Model the fold of this input.
Amino acid sequence: MSGPPFLFLLLFFLLPSVIMVVASFRHPGEFGGLAPLFPAAPGEEAGLTLENYRIFFGDWIYFQIFLKSFVIAALTTLVCLAIAYPLALLIARSPRRYRDLMVLLVVLPFASNFLVRVYAWMIILGPFELLFTRTAVIVGMVYVHLPFMVLPLYTNLEKHDPALLDAAQDLGANAWHRFWKVTFPLSLPGVFAGSALVFIPVLGMFAIPEILGGIGDWMVGNMIKEAFLGVRDWPFGSMLSLMLTVCVLAVAGLTAWFAGRKLRHA
Done:
C-alpha cells in the first residue's frame, strides 16, 4: 500500500491509535486530560502506569458490558439483514424508472437530524411500554442503521445477470432453488459489506442505548463517553477505546477470512 491510501490510514487510523495507546498508560490529570510525564510537585502522580489495564482485566463487569455490546450488535445486524435483503431484492427487480425513487426513500431519513429521529421513537414506543428496554435499543439501532445494509445489497443485486436465473429455470430449478443456489451466493459480497457497515458502528453507539435503553442497557460506547465527558478520566477512556478497536479488528479479520473462504467456494 502506498500513496493516498497509506497517508489516509496514517493520519486517521495509525496516528490516533498510537496516541490512544500512549494515553492509556498515563495517569489522569487533576481536572481532566493527562497528568504530566514528570511530576511538577512532590507526591503528584506522573509517568506511565498499568493501573487502567489492571482495573479492566480485574473486574468482570467490563467483560459483561463488552459481551452485551457484541450481542446487541450481532442481533441488530441479523435483523437489518432480514429486513434489508427482501427490500433490496424488490428494488433491484423493480422497473428501472422506479429504482431511483425507491433508493431515495431508503436514504430519506438521513435528511433529518439523528437525535430527532431517535427521540421520535420515544413517542412511538412509550404507549407500548417498550421504552427503556433491550427491545427499544434494538428497534432504534435497526431503524438508524438499516440503510447501511440496504444500499450495499441493492448495489450488488442490481448487477446480477438475469440470464443466470433463466438458465437455472431451464434446468428445472424452482423459485427457492434459483434464489438459494444462484442469487444468494452471488450476493454474499453485499451481505458481508452491509454487515460490516452495521455491526461496527453499532458497537460504538452510545446515544441510542442512553435515550431508548436507559442506564440499564449501557454499551461500550456509553462507558467510553462517561470516561471522557463524565468522570474526565481520559487514560481509562483511551484504554477502553483501545480494547474496542482491538475487538473490532479481530472481528473484521475473522469476517474477512470467512468471507474469502465462502467467496472462493461460491
In short: The mean pLDDT is 89.
